[in-house]
Amino acid sequence: VGANNFTVTVTAQDGTTKYYYVTVTRADVSTSYTNLPASADGTWSYGGVTVFTISNSQMDYSGLTGLTLQYDASGNLYYVYSGNKIALTGYTWDGSVIRVSGVALTKGSANTGSYTNLPASADGTWSYGGVTVFTISNSQMDYSGLTGLTLQYDASGNLYYVYSGNKVALTGYTWDGSVIRVSGVALTKGSASTGSYTNLPSSANGTWSLYGSPIFTISNSQMNYSGLTGLTLQYDASGNLYYVYSGTRIALTGYTWDGSVIKVSGVALTKS
User: Fold this and answer.
1) Within 10 A of 69 (CB to CB), how many other CB atoms are there?
2) What pLDDT band is residue 192 in, cutting at 50, 70 and 90?
3) Is 122 helix (H, G, I), strand (E, B) or coil?
4) Strand runs (DSSP E) across 144-199, as ranges?
């Protein structure tokens, strides 16, 4: 029960290594769950790209088929796999609309509108909180172990990459004509920052949860995460959170410390 964190390590041909993090949250089976109603059937999309299609409260997801979708009393969404309820972290059902991180998905066919390659002015290294997110060259980037992905944006500025002829949404990422943003926060173009970092204070010690599911437990400014133990947690001048692994500072993208509370995408976690 709770969050299960995994690290995926990708080593490029030039020997550089990047780490990607996946959290799978198993729900507490003591909670009451309800299948999505018939009104939820249809194709749900974000920024013009299909996220999933629901039929008879079921969907296909991440290579798995016929997964039953349910929600709890707080509206948090789950799918049932091999008898286990797995949280679709960040996804909620408000009785009429599916949301991700509070942003409503659009029900209906995915947008097949116009897409434009990123301009030459977008070429360069983009970083968040001092850590490189990706590097763009000739409208292309390497991402999650894939190379030479063309980056495009739609009329609303939502970003996509093209993989095997399909447009895949970089959910939360936008292009405003001059800057790439994630969840509205501008990335910095240029080399990653080497600024000042501070260990989390003792007031941050405890177990932090999102929608009732534990994310991580902090003790003496350290946490265990994604199978790694004793990782030191730090924050920068903007409050962005990092952990230190093998001497390397790695961004907990979207997580911030405001002096008293840890937040993810602006949503406060609960400490216990």
Assistant:
1) 23
2) very low
3) helix
4) 146-153, 158-163, 166-175, 180-182, 185-186, 188-189, 198-199
By CB neighbour count within 10 A (0-12 exposed, 13-18 middle, 19+ buried), where does 147 fall? exposed
- Convert the pLDDT of each residue in 156-184 to its tens digit: 788 888 877 777 777 778 898 889 988 78
Question: Sign (positive/negative) of CA torsion 161, 67, 3, 213?
Answer: positive
Q: What is the mean pLDDT of residues 220-232?
A: 80
Q: Which residues contact 104 (CB under 8 A, 6 or more apart)?
A: 97, 98
Q: What confidence score (pLDDT) does residue 72 get?
A: 92
Report the alpha-carbon distance of residue 5 to residue 64 in Å, rounded: 20
| pLDDT tens digits for range 103-146 | 888 876 544 567 889 988 888 888 876 677 878 888 888 766 67
What whole-number distance in Å separates Cα of residue 141 and Cα of residue 161?
9
**216 vs 82: CA distance, rounded Å:** 25
Q: Is residue 153 exposed (0-12), middle (13-18) or buried (19+ Cβ within 10 Å)?
A: buried
CA distance 272 to 257: 16
| Residue 93 confidence (pLDDT) above 90 | yes
58 with 48: CB under 8 angstroms? Answer: no
Cα–Cα distance for residue pair 34/67, rounded to 1 Å: 14
Check: CB of residue 73 under 8 Å from CB of residue 32.
Answer: yes
